[in-house]
Specification:
The chain is an all-alpha fold. The chain contains five helices and no strands. The chain starts with a helix and ends with a helix.
């Protein structure tokens, strides 16, 4: 389960919008919003976000337990 609130925080910390991140991972903003709502991203998308957003503790965001 992805902690979308923490992911939003990382996006903001980098001075980006969700639309910016959508472009980064190669999806439309609408698709990105749906993925955020459902908390589901592909492993390639997660890898790109970890790298581009300089996420220090990806386990806490992308592989969190309920």
């Amino acid at each position: 389960m992805i902690k979308t609130d923490e992911l939003r925080g990382e996006i903001a910390r980098n001075g980006l919008s969700q639309s910016d991140v959508a472009k980064m991972i190669g999806v439309t903003p609408k698709t990105f919003y749906e993925k955020m709502k459902n908390g589901v991203f592909g492993s390639d998308e997660i890898e790109i976000m970890i790298e581009k957003l300089n996420i220090r503790d990806p386990m806490a965001i992308f592989f969190a337990k309920k």
